Amino acid sequence: MGEKEKRASNRKMPKHVAVILDGNRRWAEKRGLGTSEGHEAGARRLLENAKDCFAMGTNTISLFAFSTENWERPEDEVKCLMALFEKHFRAEMPFFQRDKIKILVIGNRAKIPESLRGLIEEVEEATKSYEGKNLIIAIDYSGRFDILQACKSLATKVKDGLIQVEDINEEAMEKELLTKCSEFPNPDLLIRTSGEQRISNFFLWQSAYTELYFPTVLWPDFGEAEYLEALTWYQQRQRRFGRRV
Length: 245
Hints:
The protein is of the alpha/beta class and 245 residues long. The chain has helices spanning 3-10, 24-30, 35-55, 75-98, 114-127, 143-159, 170-174, 224-241, and strands spanning 16-20, 60-67, 102-106, 134-141, 189-192, 211-213. The chain has two domains: 11-141 and 186-236, Decaprenyl diphosphate synthase-like (Undecaprenyl pyrophosphate synthetase, 3-Layer(aba) Sandwich), CATH 3.40.1180.10; 143-177, no CATH class. The protein has eight helices and six strands, in the order H-E-H-H-E-H-E-H-E-H-H-E-E-H.
C-alpha cells in the first residue's frame, strides 16, 4: 500500500461495501469497442477492486453483477455475460482459496445455464469454511425478489407452526433475506458508478441506512484512486454525522 492507502485503512472502514457495476457498454462505445469488450474490462476491474477492498479491511463485498432485468438484453450479450462468469470463476479459484475468500452467489438460479450453476456450487462448496472475507455476487437478483422470497419463507413457517405471526419483526425478516449469508448483511456503503443516482432494484431492504455514493466514472475506469475517494467521502460522512460504521 502507498501512504494514501495506509491513511485510509487506518481510519474506520465500512464492513460491507456494495457496488452496482454500471457503465460497461458506454465505456466500450466511447472507445469504439464491442459490448463484449466492455464487459470483459468490467470483469477485470471487478476482481481488482475486490482485492483492494479486502486489503483495506472490508469484510463483505457485494456486487450487483447481473440483474433480473438484464435478461431483456440481446441474446448474444447475455450469453457473453454468462460465459464471463464461468471464465472468471474458474480462473480466480486459486486466488479465492489462497486468500481464503468465501464466495456466495445470491439470486434466482433457475434460468442461468446448467454449467454455470454447477460451477457456482463447486466454488461455494470449496470456499464455504472461510471466514472474514465474503464476496457476494448477485446474479439474476432483484431487491423485490429478495423481499418476496423472505415473506414467503416467513409465511411458510407460520403455516407450519414454527413461528407465530407476532414473531415476525425486522430481525426475523433480515434472517430470511439472501444477504443473511454475511456477518454484516446490510451494506455501510453502496457505490453506483456512471453517475446514475438511484439503486434501482438492488438491496431495497438492506440499504435503508446505507451511505449512497454516485461517482460519474464508468465502471471499467473505477480504479484504486476512485475507490479511495469513495472511502474518504464515507469516512467524512461518519465524522460529520456520527453514523454507524
